[in-house]
Write a structure and sequence with these properties.
By secondary structure, the protein is of the alpha/beta class. The chain contains five helices and seven strands.
Length: 124
């Protein structure tokens, strides 16, 4: 099962993380969500703790770099196969840590990847 964790999820329909959850669910992809504010999007509960996140294949990031720092260790402990850095989340410091842990770094837009069919085009 290739779970995707939307990290930095928001219950605000105007946020890209909200739209990403909608599109992932519409594509039939197993979706988890973590954010500072709880809520629900398309039946996916936004959790404000990472304790129950299991088998995260892809973590798609919607959190600016300065807010990512406190979560480095928690993200690394999830052992995702890849982390997608969406526009505005680019973080070269974190790329180094992830690559050292054999986690693929993808600098791209999840919404674009889903719309053009490249989200699962890799062999992962």
């Amino acid at each position: 099962m290739k779970n995707t964790l939307v990290f930095g999820a928001s219950p605000n329909p105007g946020r890209y993380s909200y739209i990403a959850i909608e599109r992932l669910v519409e594509a039939g992809l197993p979706t988890l969500a973590f954010g500072l504010k709880t809520g629900k999007v398309k039946g996916v509960s936004i959790q404000n703790t990472l304790g129950e996140m299991e088998e995260v294949h892809t973590l798609t990031l919607y959190m600016r770099p300065s807010h990512q720092v406190p979560f480095y260790d928690a993200i690394m402990k999830l052992k995702p196969k890849r982390v997608i850095f969406n526009p505005g989340t680019e973080n070269p410091e974190f790329y180094i840590l992830l690559k050292a842990a054999d986690i693929e770094v993808v600098v791209a837009c999840t919404l674009v990847m889903l719309s053009v069919g490249t989200y699962w085009s890799d062999p992962l």
